[in-house]
Design goal:
- Keywords: Signal.
- It is a single chain.
- With 140 residues, the chain is an alpha+beta fold.
- It has one domain.
- Helix content is 24%, strand content 54%.
- It has an eight-stranded antiparallel β-sheet with strand order 1-2-3-4-5-6-7-8.
- A hairpin with a 2-residue loop joins strand 4 and strand 5.
- The longest helix is centred in the last third of the chain and has 18 residues.
- It is flat, with a radius of gyration of 18 Å.
- The model has no long low-confidence stretch (mean pLDDT 83).
C-alpha cells in the first residue's frame, strides 16, 4: 500500500512539472510516455507489445486530461499468426466535442466501429468483417 502511495505521489509531481517535451519511461515490452501538448493537455500513454514469431499481444492505454478534456482510450489485441484480433474504445468528455463513447472491434485487417448512435453501422461492419475473415482463411 505504501508503495502505491509513493507511486501516485510521484506521478502527480511528474504531471505538474512535466515540460512540453515530456519524457519516456521504458518498461519491459513497452513503455510509459508522459507529455504536455501545446494546448495545455496532459497525455499519459502506456503501451506494451509482445510478438514471438507472429503470436502475442498488444496493449495500448492513453489518458488525455486538461483544458476541458478528459479522455480514456484503450486497445487490447491478440496477435494470431501475424493477424490482430481485439477490442478497443474510448470514453471521454471534451468541451468542444461533448461526450464520446466508442468501441472498435478488430478482426484481421477489418475494424468495426461502434458506439452510441453507431449500432447499425457496427453490426454492418461486423458482418462484413466476419464474411471477409471467413473468405480469406485458408482451408486445410
Amino acid at each position: 500500500m505504501r508503495f502505491l502511495l509513493i507511486v501516485a505521489i510521484s506521478l502527480v509531481f511528474i504531471l505538474v512539472h512535466t515540460q512540453d517535451s515530456g519524457f519516456v519511461i521504458p518498461l519491459p515490452f513497452g513503455g510509459l510516455n508522459i507529455k504536455k501538448t501545446e494546448d495545455g493537455k496532459t497525455e499519459i500513454d502506456a503501451n506494451g507489445n509482445l510478438n514471438i514469431f507472429g503470436w502475442g499481444a498488444k496493449k495500448d492505454f492513453k489518458i488525455v486530461t486538461g483544458n476541458g478534456t478528459f479522455d480514456i482510450k484503450n486497445k487490447d489485441t491478440a496477435i494470431v499468426n501475424n493477424t490482430d484480433f481485439g477490442l478497443g474504445g474510448d470514453l471521454g468528455v471534451d468541451k468542444s466535442k461533448g461526450i464520446s463513447n466508442n468501441v472498435n472491434l478488430t478482426l484481421g485487417d477489418q475494424t468495426s466501429h461502434g458506439g452510441v448512435g453507431k449500432e447499425t453501422n457496427f453490426i454492418e461492419e461486423l458482418i462484413k468483417s466476419l464474411q471477409n475473415l471467413g473468405s480469406t482463411t485458408p482451408k486445410p
